Amino acid sequence: MKNLEMPNNSINVFDLEAVAKTKLTTLAFDYYSSGACDEKTLSANMTAFQDIWLRPRMLVDVSNRNMTTTVLGQQISAPIMIAPAAFQCLAHAEGELATARAADKFGTTMVLSTLANYSIEEVREATAGNLWFQLYVYKDKGVTRSLIERAEKAGYTALVLTVDSPLLGRRERDVRNKFNLPAGLVCKNLIGNYLEQLPAGSNDSGLASYISSLYDTSLTWKDLTWFKSITKLPVIVKGILRGDDAARAIEYGADAIVVSNHGGRQLDTTIPTIQALPEVVEAVDNRVEVYMDGGIRRGTDILKAIAFGARAVLIGRPFLWGLAVAGQSGVLTVLEMLRSEFDLSMALSGCQSIGDITPDLIASENRK
After folding, report:
1. What pTM was estimated for this model as a whole?
2. Under DSSP, is residue 135 helix (H, G, I), strand (E, B) or coil?
3. Which residues are catalytically annotated?
4. pLDDT tens-place string over residues 296-317
């Protein structure tokens, strides 16, 4: 499908969100944009960044800047990755295929959701880029094992285990809309496992009903040992907000950690991720890489996350707005917008490279 042209007056992520809202159905826009309950955490993820003040260095030669870094040994062009997001065909017919191609062109890693509208294999066929696979854990361990085996066979380079979703947070916009997938859209990774379609006719969110009936609510840290035993891939634990949980994740074999509150979509009034990041980084003590998501909308947000110790950030809603507006080119535009803002933030902070983005760039009152 041919990509649409980007609106000329869209100069930042917020502009694209406004355009995306006009292109998406109410059901799709609310699904992507909403948070749990009163959406306090959804809002706080962004405002917490705005409450952090920077202390830039002056008279530093920033004529040449290098934004490249590595994640699990794989080089990326900037510390920005694509977070797992379900049902991307709600935004664009090419869905995850368009997103994967844009990530590859940008030179970064995409994390494919278990609940994708295109399969593990289809997304791999669409791109030669670096892909990670995000995993929800089903009561049927055979389904989980099958997904892992398929990701390995297709050449994905890491597994991202989401641990904050034994049940779905109450997303009231989805409840009001009785969220379900439109006709023709399914969870392609689960075809043949009787799980590919959300339940119809629910008075609640179809996704909430699906998760409550099929996800494994008995999952514990010991299960992480099981995951490690059945795969050769690195296992990244996503959904950590506490230092003690971070330490425990490493104890049970985590190869990296994503500080995440699921974009404010699970437990409302959960701590914003940028506030949780320093405690997790301290507990990890450089034993594994730490990434974060939630609330990234500006280049300065990325700078602050790196200064607090994140190796890289993952973006979710911003790339979905680009996808809705212009498919692959829209996703790429969002990535380039954020990279350009991040590059400017580095220059104005006196940073030539990622290694120069250190905690002392953050005002002391924000480092407590």
Report:
1. 0.94
2. strand
3. 262
4. 999 999 999 999 999 999 999 9
